[in-house]
Amino acid sequence: MIIRIFNFISKHFKNLVLCVLILFIIITTYYKPNLIKDNFVIAAVSMGGEHKLIGKGMLSGIHLYLDQLNRNGGINGRKVTLEVYDDKGDRDTAIKVAMEIAKKNKALVVLGHYFSACSLAASKVYLKSRIPAITGSATAEKITQKNDWYFAVAPNNSFQGSFLANYISSSLGHQTCSIIYDSDDYGTSLFRSFEEKARSIGIDIKNVWTFDKSDPRFSTQIRQLISQMRSTSHPGIIFVATHANEGAQIISSLRYPGADCQVIGPDSFSTNAFIKNLSKYPQEKTRPGYYSDGIYTVTPFLADFNNEYSQKFISSYVKLFHKKPSWVSACYYDATHIAVKAMQELEGEEKIRHNRMQIKNVLASKYNIETSEQGVCGPIFFDKDRNVKHPLRVCVYKNQQLAPDYVQYNLITNPMGEDNTFEKILNKQLITSGDIIMNKTRIVFSGIHVNEISNFDTQKGVYTMDFFLWFRFQGEFDEKDIIFLNAVSPIQLTKCIAEYKHKEAVTRAYHLKEKFYTLLDFQRFPFETHDLSIKLRHRKQTSDKLMLIPDNDEPYLNQLLKIDGHKTVVKIQGWTVSDTYKYNGIVSYESSLGIPVQYHLKRPIVFSTNSVTVRIKRNNLSFAIKLLTPAFLLFILFFTVSLLHYRYHFHYFFSLLMVLFISAIFLFKSFLIINVSYMLLLQYVYLSLFISSSAGIIIYIIILLLRVPDRYKKRLSRYLRALTIVCVFAILYYAYISYKPLNFNKFVHVYKKHEPLNEFNIH
Amino acid sequence: MNKNGLKAITISGWILICLCACDYLEMPMVSREDYLSNSPEDVVVAIIDSSNLQNGFIDGVKLAIDEINQLGVLGKKIRAEYYDDKGLYSKGLKIAKKIARNPKVMAVIGHNCSHVATATSITYENNGIVFISPGATDPDLIQNQNKYIFRTIPSGEQLTNRLVEYANHNHLKKMAVIFDNDNEMKQLANFFITQFSKNGGQIINTRSYISWETNFKNIVHNINQAGDYDALFISGKLPSAALFIKQAREMDIHHPILATNDLDSIQLFQIAGEQAKNIILPTFFDPLQPVEKTRLFVRMFVEKYGTQPDAFAASGYDAILLIADAIEKSGSFLPVEIATTLHLIQDFHGVTGTFSMNENGGIKSKAVFVKKSSIDDFQYVERKLFGDININVSIKDLTIRIPIEGSIPTVDPGLTESTSSIDVTEQLFLGLTDFEPETLKPVPELAASWTVDANYQNYTFFLRQDVLWTDGKPVTARDIQWAILRNLNKKTHSPYAYTLHILKNADAFDQGTMDQSNVGVKVIDDYTISFQLNKSAPYFPSMAGLWVFRPLPKHIITQYPDSWTNPDKIVSNGSYTLAAWEKGLIMILRKNKTYFDAKNVSIPEIRYIVISNGKLGMEMYRSDEIDLMGGNYLQIPFDYISDISRNPGYKNQYFKKEIHCSYAFALNTQKKPFDNVWVRKAINAAIDRYRIIKYITKGNQQVANNFTPQLSSFFETRSFDPVKAHKWLAQAGYPDGKNFPEIVIAFNQSETHEQIARGIQKCLKYYLNVHARLKPMPWEGYIDNLKTSNDWHLIRFGWCADYPDPNNWLNDLFHPNRSDNVIRWHNDAFMELMNAVDQTNNFSERMDLYHQAEHILCKKFCGIVPVFFETSHYLINPRIKGWYHMPLGGQHIRNWSLQ
What we know:
The complex is a heterodimer of chains A (763) and B (899). Chain A is built from 22 helices and 26 strands. In chain A, α7 packs parallel to α8. In chain A, a hairpin with a 4-residue loop joins β17 and β18 (462-474). In chain A, the strands form 6 sheets. In chain A, strands 15, 16, 17, 18, 20, 21, 23 and 24 form an 8-stranded mixed sheet that branches. Chain B has 899 residues and is of the alpha/beta class. Chain B is built from 28 helices and 34 strands. Chain A binds chain B through residues 199-202, 204, 361, 364-365, 367-368, 383-384, 416, 421-423, 425-427, 432, 435, 437, and chain B through 639, 642-643, 646-649, 688, 690-692, 694-696, 698, 718, 720-723, 726, 758-759, 762-763, 766-767.
């Protein structure tokens, strides 16, 4: 009977395969939903030509979001496709592009345009054809004021003006200021809101100058303005509300040796164009930072500023594009995010007009912090003119690079909860803009320089690090509250090796040699690299109060500790340093804040962390080769004997036994060496050989014992050999697909179970 | 062929097996009692339509069954089995027999034709099935000995009785009667004749016809011959009766025709066409009757089927609900128990109205309505818009529901003071003038017009002659004169009596030194009244609309001086009358039918509901229990305002409006160190009004840089300027607040006032380094402090306009001699300006003078620190149309309507 079946199978093998295939096709096509809905379409207006770089930045943010979304199944199973247009940063083209979008009538939402002028021009088209549009960059108020289909996810000019006024008073502590503004829309709206706020919070405005770019006597105006300014005594901080080009011109004549005036500029100062224009001047060219150092400016997003919402974005961006995201990418990432959120709530009719209307309504219904969506730049919700309001990041130039200033602001979620809000506002502990209230987040720069790594225990993952640790901050900061997340035993920062003050900032340095540990991913065994790190956070202050930012540039400390000269030394046999990473991030815990009623409502408590990771690698490849060579040889053997003719079955039999025996030795030895609860890739390799060979032997014996003519045995043994080879591959393939790198973030705070939660006093 | 045959056999075999697998076989015969007593699977009710009648019976039944099945009855669902007897005996009997054989059926609803119902009822009675007819009106259907037979509508006699009533009301004294020679119709005609005669009517002639006749000309002719008559009564069925009507109308008979309920069908119009005019029918259902349940049913019906429900839809709906009610009450599915329960049901609230079952199975005490046909439709006549006043039950479609805080202290215009009283007074009593809501200019209301002499001192008002008191007496000039003198009388304690002192010799009368005949109000004739003022006042027409100037019903007040405002005694003249008043709970106003413009008053009923707090009010607003919030009514809590104003969900409901109210602090200009003007200016400039509004009151008010709202356009530069404040304080001799004594901020105790005062305290501390102490006071103490005491530096000072003229602000409040002079000043320049204003009649000149005075008060002398102008926030249900805001309070609901 069995033989008959075998016979039947071997005879009709092709037909059988064909049948199965047809059946498979029928079933799969049948189960495919026969109503495939169209993809959702989003239009993005980017830019090519001279603004190509910016255009790329816009698209990288949008793509990053949409790719993630589509990979995870899109919106209710429907993918989102992106139509990209190019307005060349030009008004007329913008109108054409908008008309094209309207004519195609596919896109549910338009993301863009980059420039205010383009957005304003295209706005009428969107209003007329009732297409919701979201800009992540245009900041003129008029865009959204006149069009209730236009939304902006970057804070507009007037918000910026009032924010800057607040900042110079509450953080920089200035009581007087002077203003220079461009008489165009941009400058005027910045100036108006700045002035209004300044007056209301008691800043004395000493002087106000303005100029008109379109005026033929423009250069004379500037010259006069500057000479007036130079002759003013104690002008206070100077707010230069101009575009990048004019800004650079004014700065270059304002800051000269001996002139000790502080300058704060709007977001145009944070663009590349500003530095580029400034670099045209010889002083700045020869000594970068000659003019630009110490200029304050704002930007909607700063990649250094890591919180629970932006961390994922920053890390996946870096992974994909190998650089830190610019604010343009971040803002358009947010724009895409909010657009998709609105699309997720679509229901009812499948008509595009209806859908657009729904999207617009959903966007408009996000009107306060409770209804907001968390974006990477801050919470996204719209005021009555459909603008987003969230605090901007204040940066200061240092060697032509933007570094965050020591104080930043965050939105308070429940501003009216406390009784003394009004007092705090008066005392400038809180700043306000319209309906929103912001509180301070402190920035502390912290640097770690690893001098030496030693005593690495590959089994336990424990190692000793010798390193310098320093903090740079303004005001008071107690380093004793710093805790190390992966220290073997608690570390006390007691002996300060250096302390000095530069302007307002204090730097304190420590020299430590401590034991740390890391989780080792044995699945990657035999590993070639290890990441050894130090990770620290503040004990009490959560990330909305305190943010740690890696400090890369510390010239004074360099001189003192000679860090530059020091390379990290690895005192572990056979390993060298491959790379060092310094980054900040977050670590979150869940807690009900100790409020009994809310015990079931655990909310995350988030702390800012700072880490340094040294990646070490083996000196040579010998280890892996040593481990895997036997397996390779065995596999060759396995494969060759399977080609033997049936009559050499004794050889075949013997070879398999050998494979079985040797692989068993390696397999069991590896279990003894590495004591982990999961299978390693290495073990899979030997396991596959072990199982296949043992199965081969058993089945071979059965075949030999069968009472059938030899020709059937021959044929069967052929199939069997092929099968065992396939078996090896199948097990290896399974090992490959089941391999998942360990998520270290998940483990970071698991190991300290004794850490009581009530320690996290969030006040 | 053979193969195919085999296939066919196999397939049919399979089908057979499939079918047999279903529960196709009839249930073995068990008795109904047994089946129904052992907890049946479903409650089976047979629904029998009579499709010849073309009505919405089945739709109504389905609606009711759907509604009941949402919850089930005693945990079971009602399953309906539908039949159609087409109005035929034979069909009806067949159906009845079939149903009788089915032991699952517990009740039968239907057989809407009287003759079928009567015939089949015996079968149901004998088989112990509950039978409810929602359509058969034949009196014979319901008989004493029957146990299981019911109906949910009045009998033909009960309906006809209503026609007799109608004839009486409409003075139809002489009647000609025509009836179908059918037993039932004849019986009704006889009944009508007896009842009509009993009520003093006269039957001129009686004729009968046979239903198959098609030519009625002879009969019509005969009737005309018999003599003069007021109306015809037809007791007949369709289609013959309709044909009769058509022919009678064609023969120029235009008298009203009273007919039985049987003609209540669209068929009437199909047959009689345009001739079907002026036919009066009784009916048991009115979709617009003032019962919330009925309204809800109509809404649900329209929503589901898109048409208005007819009488059969409603009674079918009622029948299902009635049987479900009986099942619930009896707790059983046994027909005998349900029938017993049904007999005992009292006051069942159905959608056709409330009724009780009588001992026989008919119904009693059910309202019967009258319809009159116009060209192609029926209109309800003698419709009672309201049942009795029930403070717990309101009909949303007819009622505007207004929340008020606290209570309404009085509706006596002479004693009116609180905003809620002002609003009610406005609905109940007419003033001589009214304000145009946009411009706030006085427009005629009770007065038709007025004249004034050149120096604005003598006004003559000519009254409308069509204004009546609710008891029918005309409103005359004497009522106004009497009211003014009454209000001036000290014994009345009229809070607004001071505004009457603009009248000549009012002061003297008040002090008792002069007779009332000398007071400057004179009746010229019944409809003309003149006022003599003691100074020139171009704004007097605005004042004349105030409550104290409104006419009062002398005849009632003299009779019931203390209780005349009770609902049973009050006599008013406005667009609404007081219908009910449960003090501290609710006040109900209803449309005044005697109001001269009653036809334009759209909303029949106003309910002022007393609600204790704003949060509760917000909940009620959201759940559609009240129609508006805010303004002078129940205020929206401040915490909600910023959210409401931004929430797009309230986009068409939220309104922010200005009102003429200021919130300010008066400065004691006699007390050190406030006697120094620079100190006062510094204090004024150090108060951050914007933030106080934004983060303390959170009420979205408007920042005030001056005191009088009408003059705010002159003062747009902001007062708050911390830099200058600092400078001015230094100028006064207190640089950085050094050596500045502690000052006292007084206010009457309230959470809001305290918060604002605390905000000011903090501003002064922060910007000027000036310490302030808060001094909360009870109301009486606060009033004393305003007038006499000097134990404060700043005192809360709020004011709302009584009439839209700056005179009410500057002269009435701050004249150093003529007012309470809260800021304790004496300023010659200000007094000169005030005197100059009294001499001027030119509007722009007056405004200019007021502007100068205001400038002295707020800026130059700086006697008062204005904080904000109050704003009203409203949430208005979009169903209210024509709503408008009145900055001085007291909107007229007569101009609004409900949608």
